[in-house]
Amino acid sequence: MSRFPTQPLILSPREFETSADTLRSVLASQSDARVGPAIIPSPETILVEKIIRIIQESYTEPRLSLKMIGRTERRSPRYLGRIFKKHIGLPFRQYLRGVRIARAERLLLSSHDEVKIIAGVVGYNDASHFTEDFRLLKGCTPSMFRDQARCTLA
Fold this sequence. Notes:
Layout: H1 13-31, H2 43-58, H3 66-73, H4 77-88, H5 92-110, H6 115-121, H7 127-138, H8 142-153
Helix pairs in contact: 1-2, 2-4, 3-4, 5-8, 6-7
């Protein structure tokens, strides 16, 4: 049984940036316990932490995939996907999409760049695919999101 939640996690941008740190601190607090032997993170946990770190560092790369990570880690993409979902509660692509859209939200609010530019910055080759994913997660288009945010801030 996994020590991590099994329900899907939707992380805010700030939560995403600290997810690996949080995982490390949970593992550290368990290993620092004075009662009983130290809990050593499993190889799966370490690998999932590494995948999260790769996502944080490389989400802007349009070709980021489990296949690409699998080549560098010498593991099959299927295995990586299975353990990622087991520990995080979301499939890799869905988690990556959430990370990209969360970053896009911040850029939409903090810059005046066109939506197609922001799409490219967060790892989408196609602005229409970005808009589709944004609408799926946020319930509105990126332009509508930006306009609504400006209205509430005014």
